[in-house]
Task: inverse folding
């Protein structure tokens, strides 16, 4: 029952995303057989060093979705304060209420069943533009972002190029 | 009440006690002893009728039933005056943090806005109910089978009953939310009322919800606080405001016997005021004293700044790290010492003497801190040990009854003594933290005399109290213990009254930039 709820809901979300895709975001299940595994492509937001880049990411949904949030991982290197070196994304919307690894997130910012894949991807896009350095997942990147902004931007731009194979 | 009897009995002995203590107590500490002082710190609550001390705080203990009744009264009142549903009245009161007057006033002026702000929106009538809507699909689980039960508040955001239940479960169980559970819809501010909740969730969750609601009542009201003792469900009402805390130390005693400060919730810390206690605890906890020790006991190599502790040997130092050779006394180059081997006659030079002065100062300040800290820690430790003894007191009293043939009421003096020991030690402990921050003036000396007197009495009582049972059976010792108990309690009252008076008048002078 639980897995059919997740399937049904994800199918619904997939349909909404394809019919009415938000700008700069494409996402969908990799195969029709496994609705719990998605891939997404996110465009680097304009006016940021990520501009021009296309960032592939995977989304893994738990069986009890939408009660629990999915996890999201970038598939290439993303130099960003809120992305772990492994590519795992750390933002509040991906944390279930009551599960606050850094003890400062407000419950209302976190995952709830009325959030959606679309909202996650939009949040991640704005996270790329505006990092939150209060609880960095990548301390080095946060330090660089805070103290040596030009170098941070340079490193991000280089990362974008590499990812595009330039 | 038995403890009061003890004091009544021993009051005639006081004159005797006083004359005995005259030679040991310093001059000027005896005033006040001759006044009849019937007070006993730990029975404050039973003595509302008696003369009120300056360090006593007026307070009231509320049991869970009282708290519920208070809420119900307020809700009923608002329900009648404003002619709105009880559930809505409850939500409005919680929104106004139980300030009934402000709620009524605001509601009279702009009812629509008040309802909107509190998350009630334009009101319609009709009790909440589950509904089956044709063609409905839940936005959370995407379920759309016919006959699906769904629920929506007046805001119209409809979800299936299962998802709503899941949501409430999460809010109540995981987040401990009750008074301000909003509609699940993102951004909708509508607040769920108790009736709707009761319709949706299991009875177990309902209980938890109402428990949490009661809790918000106490937490929302400034003059109410939970008793911090484990498993105690009482709340204390006290009118002391936050801004008064530099003038009074509002100690309250719950019916569960736990004594604590209403200002900060810590265990009784009279006579020291809250902010001083906070500072002191922080000082003891953080490593500022480690740094102090380092500066008092070590010097730095003049060349590479490595920290060096000299634990013996001559003054000719060779830094292990950078091989710099210097004189420990004057910190100058050793090569300049010429022929005066292993001796420094350059001691009086100005540059060196300044560095030495700074070091001497931090050494003195460390010693001063340790003086107060050791005594503070000692009383804390002793109070813990006395507590252990207190648990044994019960046994002691029983064996004393069998050994001496005394009756139950006749051995209660041990109980009072143990109580007195604990409260007095608690007070003494904090007098040391208090004294640490005092400037050296006359008032401080009087305080220290009071402190010394109480301390000596407590130690004497402590010693008597530990005597073996066969000695305790001696009627002479019994009288002595009773006298000492009463004396300790009196000295404590005097000390607390004195400090509280001066605190209220702002007479204390603080050192260390306090």
Result:
């Amino acid at each position: 029952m639980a897995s059919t709820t997740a399937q049904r809901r994800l199918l619904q979300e997939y349909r909404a995303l394809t019919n009415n895709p938000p700008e700069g975001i494409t996402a969908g299940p990799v195969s029709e057989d496994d609705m719990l595994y998605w891939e997404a492509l996110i465009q680097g937001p304009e006016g940021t060093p990520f501009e021009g880049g296309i960032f592939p990411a995977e989304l893994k949904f738990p069986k009890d979705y939408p009660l629990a949030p999915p996890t999201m991982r970038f598939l290439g290197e993303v130099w960003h304060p809120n992305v772990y070196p492994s590519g795992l994304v750390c933002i509040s919307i991906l944390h279930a209420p009551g599960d606050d690894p850094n003890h400062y997130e407000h419950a209302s910012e976190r995952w709830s069943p009325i959030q959606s894949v679309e909202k996650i991807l939009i949040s991640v896009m704005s996270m790329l533009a505006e990092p939150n350095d209060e609880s960095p997942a990548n301390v080095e990147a946060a330090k660089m972002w805070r103290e040596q902004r030009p170098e941070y931007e340079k490193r991000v731009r280089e990362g974008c190029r590499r990812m595009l194979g330039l | 009440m038995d403890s009061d009897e003890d004091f009544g009995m021993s009051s005639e002995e006081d004159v005797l006690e006083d004359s005995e203590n005259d030679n040991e107590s310093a001059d000027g500490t005896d005033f006040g002893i001759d006044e009849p002082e019937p007070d006993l710190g730990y029975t404050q609550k039973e003595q509302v009728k008696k003369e009120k001390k300056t360090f006593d705080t007026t307070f009231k203990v509320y049991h869970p039933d009282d708290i519920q009744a208070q809420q119900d009264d307020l809700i009923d009142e608002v329900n009648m005056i404003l002619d709105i549903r009880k559930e809505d009245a409850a939500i409005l009161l919680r929104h106004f943090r139980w300030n009934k007057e402000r709620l009524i006033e605001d509601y009279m002026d702009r009812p629509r806005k008040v309802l909107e702000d509190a998350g009630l929106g334009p009101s319609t009538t009709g009790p909440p109910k589950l509904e089956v809507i044709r063609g409905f699909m839940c936005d959370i689980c995407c379920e759309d089978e016919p006959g699906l039960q769904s629920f929506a508040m007046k805001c119209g955001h409809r979800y299936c009953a299962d998802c709503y239940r899941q949501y409430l479960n999460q809010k109540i169980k995981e987040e401990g939310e009750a008074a301000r559970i909003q509609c699940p819809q993102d951004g909708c501010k509508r607040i769920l009322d108790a009736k709707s909740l009761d319709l949706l969730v299991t009875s177990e969750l309902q209980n938890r919800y109402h428990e949490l609601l009661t809790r918000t009542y106490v937490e929302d009201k400034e003059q109410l606080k939970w008793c911090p003792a484990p498993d105690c469900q009482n709340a204390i009402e006290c009118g002391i405001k936050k801004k008064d805390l530099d003038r009074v130390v509002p100690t309250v005693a719950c019916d569960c016997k736990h004594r604590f400060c209403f200002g900060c919730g810590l265990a009784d810390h009279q006579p020291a005021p809250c902010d001083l206690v906070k500072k002191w605890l922080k000082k003891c906890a953080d490593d500022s004293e480690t740094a102090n020790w380092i500066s008092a006991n070590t010097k730095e190599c003049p060349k590479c700044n490595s920290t060096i502790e000299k634990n013996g040997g001559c003054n000719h130092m060779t830094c292990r790290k950078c091989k710099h050779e210097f004189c420990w006394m004057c910190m100058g180059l050793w090569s300049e010492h010429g022929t005066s081997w292993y001796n420094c006659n350059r001691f009086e030079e100005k540059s060196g003497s300044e560095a030495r002065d700074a070091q001497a100062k931090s050494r003195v300040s460390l010693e001063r801190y340790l003086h107060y800290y050791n005594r503070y820690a000692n009383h804390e430790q002793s109070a813990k040990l006395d507590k252990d003894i207190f648990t044994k007191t019960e046994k002691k009293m029983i064996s004393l009854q069998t050994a001496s043939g005394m009756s139950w009421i006749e051995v209660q003096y041990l109980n009072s003594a143990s109580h007195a020991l604990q409260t007095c030690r608690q007070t003494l402990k904090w007098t040391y933290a208090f004294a640490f921050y005092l400037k050296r003036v006359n008032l401080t000396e009087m305080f220290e005399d009071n402190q010394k007197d109480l301390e000596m009495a407590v130690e004497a009582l402590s010693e008597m109290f530990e005597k073996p049972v066969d000695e305790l059976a001696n009627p002479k010792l019994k009288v002595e213990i009773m006298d000492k108990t009463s004396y300790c309690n009196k000295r404590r009252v005097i000390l607390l009254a004195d400090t509280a008076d001066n605190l209220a008048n702002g007479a204390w002078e603080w050192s260390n930039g306090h």
Remarks:
- Chain A has one domain: 5-164.
